[in-house]
Amino acid sequence: MTNNQQQIYQEFLTAAAGGVEDYPKLMYMGVEASPYKEAIKDYPHYLRLKPDGKDLVSGTKADSNFSPYPPIGQVPEIDEQGLQFLTQDITEACICVRSFVDQQIKTKWLGRNALKNDEFWSTSKILPILNMVSRLSSNCPNINLDNCYIRGTDQLGVDKSYSFSDLVEDVVSYEEKIGTSNSLGVMFKQFSTQGEITDWVKSITGNHDLMFLGGYGEKPFIEQPELFDGTNQEMMLASTAPNHRGDNSISAYDLTRMISLVGWHEHLPETSRLPGVQWHNLESIVRALGKDPARYLDLAIAKLGLLEVIDYPVIISKLGNGATSVRNRTEAVYVALVQLVVRNPLELEQPAKLISLSMAIKGAKRLEPRDLDQEVVELDAIMAAEVTEIVRRFVICC
């Protein structure tokens, strides 16, 4: 770690002070603190941007290490030596850097234990939601999920009905306008059996050793949910009320791949896209992921002095964290995709640069003697500092 990196870590350590077990201060900053809060509604539009070669160029130059984005079900070649700059407290990581070549996406995949299957906490809640989007879109190409709602009997025996997009947002935002993130997260899993959802994730990422069997420590908000199309009041999906118990053992690569499939959908060839999915049915997912409480990328952009030189920002992400008795440590996970248009204020006649990357990083901390609150504070600062270094290397120095 350089002196400058050490200084950044110390600054984040000061900012993270006051965090407690299960509630890291920086990780749960909340979208209200984000300078990009008002831009979230425009994220789907911004994600359609492509270099025109004149006013906007690809900010990342593709070299021989870049290759076309892989087809669905195919694992890309991952450079497992490419993330050695990360502190050893980052136990698993995967970063996918995007470049445009002749209007086509090329990518470079970097990893640290990127294919190691392990617990990635609440970040995996995006998987059953995307599974639903893909299943519905494949069966009913004209469906608009913004017009759909989920209904059923809640844990108190009361019949409830909520819009699909509001439920997804509550899973991500932790605002509990409807229910807890955990109870809603497992509710979305209720539309598939353990085998169905596991096999689907395997078929998308190509990681055939993963397991996606468990819930999130709470009962489903609605145990037997039904999804209806509000346009014609037709039931589209019904739950058979399966039990989701066991391990959620997935990889940093799986999560990086999934969030890149969301953010880069419009630029991917058909063979690489989530099966059946139309962009309009991902737009509400994008806006929901814009409201993740974790603002590590916001902090990195501010720390590196980029606030005034970027346009059309997109930051979508999903946090995960907890103390594990199995591994006897505190863990934190951040899955994110960032896209920025970066201007050089000293060379205004030069074209702006379009830069995007997706990532999943997992950090772990154990102190002796154990102090869970202090572990949270230190790990929170580590995560913020490492995301800042990733942005420095792949945005500023690209």
In short:
This protein is of the alpha+beta class.
Largest sheet descriptor: 8 strands, mixed
The rough form would be described as: globular
Helix content: 25-40%
> What are the secondary-structure elements, in order, as H or E?
HHEEEEEHEEHHHEEEEHHHEEEH
N- to C-terminal separation?
Answer: 20 Å
Count of domain modules: 2
Q: Low-confidence parts, pLDDT < 50 over ≥5 residues?
A: none
The helix-and-strand class reads alpha+beta
Beta-strand proportion? 15-25%
Specify the number of helices.
Answer: 10
Radius of gyration equals: 20 Å
Oligomer: single chain
Tally of strands: 14
Residue-averaged pLDDT = 95
